Amino acid sequence: MNALAHRRFLKMNGLGNQITVLDLRGTKLRVGESDARAIAAEPRARFDQLMVLHDAKTPGTDAFVRIYNTDGSEAGACGNGTRCVAWAMLADPMMGDASKTVLTLQTKAGLLPARRDSDLVFTVDMGAPRLAWDEIPLAEPFHDTAHFELQIGPIDDPILHTPCAVNMGNPHAVFFVDDPYRFNLAQIGPLLENHPIFPDRANIELAAVTAPDHIVLRVWERGAGITQACGSGACAALVAAVRRELSARKAVVSLPGGDLTIEWRESDDHVLMTGPVEFEWEGTLAPELFETAAR
């Protein structure tokens, strides 16, 4: 029997971004790629991102979190998922301490401090964006990652071209358009995600700046596809818009699932993301789902 069978999980969402939280603290258990894919295939545990809690590795942090996409690949950061984990560790009596209002999580992309602003609204410090071509990373040097050469479609009339590259724990390519909803993102998303310019693949954003303090956004997430919301994508879009001198350093980012407030602070270069979470249900992982995946 798979060691993850019968483990308790929480099913949550952040603006419709489907999140499953699995607490493995106090154990040596790990989630493999096939395990993540099996959990994603279970209707009640299905996720865009799976947030797996492990014992803290660094003094002063509350947990180490591994993040998995539906295809089993690992992500460096997930803003919506981090807010869900913060809720679980600060509100769920079996996982956390309701007397606390702040905590610090660690992922492979770095430290993510989070605070509870109200019962279901949390702010996550997503850290400073990485903007150099080899930090994103891109496959070849570009001096100006705010306008790098990439296009899709006919060379004399491309569908999309000249995005801005940002790493917010994951690599992102932000294309500025008049209307994100007029593009067939299901068709162009996988082509751009897997473009050779992105050695680690990339999240793809279509962004429209409608006012200095408002951005409309759709996201194709690396390893997950189209999602209702993407926290790191919203952060990347705001950073990209500021770099292009299209928006203020604080704006509301409207995604299909709802709004996030994003601020790129001048004082320390960090990006703050504020938004709600929703608890849906809890369950346990059935042994059969891992047996089916193993066949």
UniProtKB/TrEMBL annotation:
Species for this entry: Bosea vaviloviae
InterPro entries on file: DAP_epimerase_AS, DAP_epimerase_DapF
GO biological process: one example: lysine biosynthetic process via diaminopimelate
GO cellular component terms, A-Z: cytosol
Main subcellular location: cytoplasm
Assembly description: Homodimer.
Gene designation per UniProt: dapF
UniProt pathway: Amino-acid biosynthesis; L-lysine biosynthesis via DAP pathway; DL-2,6-diaminopimelate from LL-2,6-diaminopimelate: step 1/1
Active site: C78 (proton donor), C78, C230 (proton acceptor)
Name of the protein described by the UniProt record: Diaminopimelate epimerase
